[in-house]
Specification:
The protein has a single domain (about 5-230, about 260-270), classed as Rossmann fold, CATH 3.40.50. It has helices at about 20-25, 40-45, 75-85, 95-100, 140-145, 175-180, 240-250, 260-270, and strands at about 5-10, 30-35, 50-55, 90, 115, 120, 125, 130-135, 155-160, 165, 180-185, 205-210, 215-220. The chain is an alpha/beta fold. The mean pLDDT is about 95. The protein has eight helices and 13 strands.
Length: about 280
């Protein structure tokens, strides 16, 4: 019997979402193991099938969020594995690390081609914590292992960041759309650059960016914080709000999977060859 895929969760000093991320992986039918930033040899020898860089404040966000972690030796290994096609997911601070390492959008190897700048929209700035809605681009559903089950609907997820605004240099604006994986929208799926639909002023309403092959995804919202239905607030409207209410009335609320689960379940399906 073939063993379950192994997903490595990389823990940096200041990471604070590694355990719930590892649990989300295991609850999706895969194996997970947490590796510290200085365990690159152990990581190399275990030969994981996929990698997740979880949220937090690696190295206290010194210099820029994700900048120090991106220079750690363990990221050289992740970079190499991504180049070989293995799936890599960066969540919030993990997304910032992927951006600082040049892995997304990855048009030119190792070059930083986008930035996650400080939140700024309609005079609002600083740290934001709350719930947003997003949807997946058609191309991302087709090529990204993390997004195959997201469908055409609206997905509610929590955000918690101060530097989550995707920006591109003017000469790369025309290329940004090809890297778009997740976009902020309202509960009906309509995009807007206005707050609070776009919570941070991100270019093209981007909530997530992928590399050209789709195997590397950097996203600012936290799917691991919405893996279970009981994590959804009661005011969430639409399909997921209805599912939440149904799980409450049926008594399955504690075990029912929430919207964040589709990202991890997508990867499990990818490894089963169901995409």
């Amino acid at each position: 019997m073939k063993s379950a895929p192994l997903v490595a969760v990389i823990q940096f000093p200041g990471s604070n979402c590694e355990y719930e991320t590892a649990r989300a992986v295991r609850s999706s039918g895969m194996d997970s193991c947490i590796y510290r930033w200085n365990q690159w040899r152990e990581l190399r020898d275990s030969q994981p099938d996929a990698y997740v860089l979880p949220g937090g404040f690696s190295f206290q966000d010194r210099i820029r969020a994700g900048a120090v972690a991106a220079k750690e030796r363990i990221m050289d290994l992740v970079f190499s594995e991504a180049a070989d096609g293995k799936p890599v997911l960066g969540i919030c601070n993990g997304a910032q690390i992927l951006v600082e390492s040049g892995m997304v959008p990855g048009w030119e190897k190792g070059r930083i081609e986008t930035a996650l700048a400080a939140n700024h929209i309609s005079g609002r700035s600083g740290y934001l914590s709350g719930w947003i809605f997003l949807h997946t681009t058609t191309r991302a559903q087709q090529i990204c292992p993390w997004l195959g089950m997201t469908g055409n609907g609206v997905i509610p997820l929590p955000i918690a960041h101060a530097e989550g605004r995707f920006v591109f240099s003017e000469e790369n604006h025309y290329r940004a759309e090809s890297s778009a994986a997740l976009k902020y929208c309202d509960e009906k799926g309509i995009e807007s650059s206005d707050y609070p639909i776009n919570p941070n002023g991100s270019f093209l309403n981007l909530a997530g960016v992928m590399n050209e092959y789709g195997n590397v995804l950097a996203m600012m919202p936290h799917p691991e914080r919405a893996f279970w239905m009981w994590q959804l607030p009661p005011w969430i409207p639409g399909e997921w709000g209805d599912r939440r209410d149904e799980s409450l009335s049926s008594g399955s609320h504690a075990a029912a999977k929430g919207p964040g689960s589709v990202f991890f379940m997508s990867l499990a399906d990818y490894f089963r060859g169901e995409r």
